[in-house]
Amino acid sequence: MTKFSLFTACLAPLVPAVAFADAPGGYAEGYYGHPMMWGEGYGFFGVGMMVVFWGVLIVLAVLAVRWLMERGPGRSQSTALDILKERLAKGEIDPEEYQARRKALEE
């Protein structure tokens, strides 16, 4: 199959859509389209809803990214006492220093 016949076969279903795109009896000579801001269509309500839609979509995307960043790998909610226990287990502090710091944290 040649490139031209493949191209024609793909575009043939679109020909009726092009024919119906320009409705007869347009709004003005040489004007094609729909005057959404001038009496027909959704007007300012449609524009406002579009802004609300995109605003909500952007806010949801930002919240999703923040939530994923907080739950990312390697992120744990360690308390000060947990960190102190880890330092004792690693041998960074001795048991006497652990007891003194634990008492200070629990007060």
UniProtKB/TrEMBL annotation:
Coiled-coil parts of chain: none
* Pfam families for this protein: SHOCT (PF09851)
The chain positions of domain SHOCT read: 79-105
- Keywords per UniProt: Membrane, Signal, Transmembrane, Transmembrane helix
- Fetch the InterPro entries from UniProt: SHOCT (IPR018649)
Q: Which residues cross the membrane?
A: 45-68
Q: Where is the signal peptide?
A: 1-21
Keyword Signal appears in the UniProt entry: yes
Give the superkingdom in one word. Bacteria
Which protein is depicted? Answer: SHOCT domain-containing protein
